[in-house]
Amino acid sequence: MNGRVWSGRQRGLLAGVGLAAALVLAVLAGELADWRFLRQPMQHLMTRAAGVPVVLEGEFRLRLLRQPGLAVQHLVVGAAPGLPVTHLLDAQDVQLAWRWLDVWHWQRGDVLQLRRLQARMLDAQLIRVADGRASWQIGPASGPSSPGTAAPPGALPRVGILVVDQGHIVFDDPQLATHLEIDVRGREGTGSGPQGYEATLTGRYRALPLRLRARSGAVLPLLGDDESGDEAPAVEVQVEGQAGVSDLHFDGHASALWSARRLEGAVRLRGPSLASLGEPLGVTLPHTPPFELAGRLSQSPGVWQLHADRMAIGRSLLAGDFRYDTRRQPAQLSGRLQGPRLVLADLGPAVGVPQAAQPEGGGKVLPQRRFDLPSLRAMDADVQVHIDELDFASTAVTPLRGLRSRVLLEAGVLQLQDFKAQVAGGQVAGSMRLEAPASTARWAADLRLTHIDIAEWIRGLRPTASPGVGKAPVRAYLTGELNATVKVTGSGRSTAEILSTLDGEAKLRLGEGTLSHLATEVIGLDVAQALGVAIRGDRPLPLRCARVELAVRSGVVEPELAVLDNSDSTLRLSGRVDLRTESLALRLITRPKDMSPLSLRTPVTVTGTLRKPELGIEARGLVGRVLGAVALGAAVGPAAALLPLVDPGERDAAGDPCVKGSI
């Protein structure tokens, strides 16, 4: 009895082993035979899984076990229904490779991922219409049976490696303002098969026109995906053409032409403005005059790096190292800007200054062009600035040297931190801040000027010719060591609007200075003494004090105290400068301390506008003195006519004239 039971179990075990062996042999036979007999079942299965027609024609080979893949002579994948295209993919001599785990995730609603797609000839139509439907929305990820899946609506399938010998790819997406056409043509070499390719890319990317041509030394992957796990070999690549209005030339190595995982080589760029350079990458750069750039460009997953050996922007000559990380939200630009010369006028358009000069007599002086405030929120930045010379593009002032600063842009707040520069034996230091919360920017500045030789800094204070005969000219009409502080705030959408709302104060003090004797007499309209100084030769008169304190309220600048005092005269400035209307209403009074036989002694006025100031004299007091001189001359004689023009001078007042409230 027990023997017969054991024999039955043994027969069942042997049958099971035999069946398993038969299945294994069948699978091995199928793998060895490339499963050619499964072409029709595979076509039906792929059609059902994709939800669109899939056609497999010609020679067919399939692998289902290790490194699953498919090779077919002709593959056609239909587009999602209801779209104006006949197919998503039409390819000849196709090789597909996938992972079963990725297929399982796709069936559960994730984005379709393929390890490799290679074709001798390929035509792909990646089309999305205005209502959001796309030709690539196939399979369960786009079907109604999988609501709430992980795949985002309209997500493109991910291809680890896409290698194309010849083909045509169209990507059209009105939601992204993008239409691109890529044509690839293999180039024949000395061996069999293509030894490289030529590709053209035309169209627009986010409304930016692109016209690029590429050549490679070998057939390299057209697309790369960091999640594929496959390492595409880097080959020599040359790219040239136009991105927007900028000319581009690249010569280096890449592992893919489009969405490359690795890119490195020499780059040359030329365009009408740095802003046009930043547009293709979504980088916020200022509007500038025409530029030329030469350096090395590299790209790794989500990170672009540029080593600029030379950047010529207008008359500026710069260099630098920059890193742009798109993996962060928002993207961040970091690095270092340096160079021998930066001309401030070359960055003028960034704050609203037009590149072309305005017609004389028309328009306003203060920049009216509105800031591009949304661009300040498009990215973050952290850039160190080291400039040897900051040129103000004017012969009237000396350039700043050894400029050091940090440009920080975070959450729409642009800051110029730790600003320091040397000039004329002294230093300019401070910080600035521009906030762009919405349509109106808020601006603040805190600057300090210390130990600056004013005559060395402001070249316009130096005489252009010898003022006397046989006498050495004065070094400058005004000299001294300048110390000043400026603290102001404002708001607006342009430089002009910010200045028209300005509030704050400025304090300036000149130590151990001199004021030219000739300048003192000319400003005071002392004709006799000015003629005497001109004949004898000018000389510097030591300043007892020199102080200016300005109050700024709602765009109106008013001197609360503005005094220059030497042994000959005391000069006081009053009035206002209205930055809202750009109008001037200033009054300069000179009180001489010595007697002069011929002095008009009347205030000098500065009126008009910033664009067209008008220098004059206040006629009210002068008319009375002139009429008195005429009357005395007629009644007494010519000599008496000079008496009303004699100025006895004023005795030195007690105390410091540079103290508020002094007379």
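(ticket continues) Second input and output from the same batch:
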Amino acid sequence: MKSVIRTLTALVCLVALSMTAKAGDDALYPKTFNAGLFAIQYKQLKAQVDLAFDANDASRKPKTSLKVCACQILDLESKNFEHSNVAILSEKTNYGDISSDLDAAKEVLETEKKHLNKLFFTKMKVVSKTQDATDCATLARKLKSDNTDLKVYDVIDADQRKAVENKK
């Protein structure tokens, strides 16, 4: 057990030191430590190590899970502010039945709209509805390229919301 802890500690230190010891492509001096960048590099390194260990295991198949995304673009109005072109997205993992997964994502989206209307906004108008068999980040980029005034309010994880509802 101690060797595992030592190995992980050494790996963390090595990654942290390598991040601060060299200059980047666009920098002439070494970069300072950045926790977000550290987490990304740690995940990439861990994925490479896991891939190396799993290369000999032919029975293990790569996990590929597709996402579906439902989106509504809204005009929101409260007593103090008016917000137009606000996108709310709901993302759900596709387990094979796209229509039921999209329906679940839409249901979570409608619940979120009810909460927004009840707590924050006096008027809410649906400008457009979109759904796609892709992740919400890709759909948001696509919508943003079509409409530069679009503001993404939130990307809701429908899987997590459904899991919380099932626990109640």
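Agent notes: The chain is about 50% helix and 25% strand. The helical segments are 2-21, 35-54, 98-119, 136-146, 158-167. Closing as not reproducible unless the customer responds.
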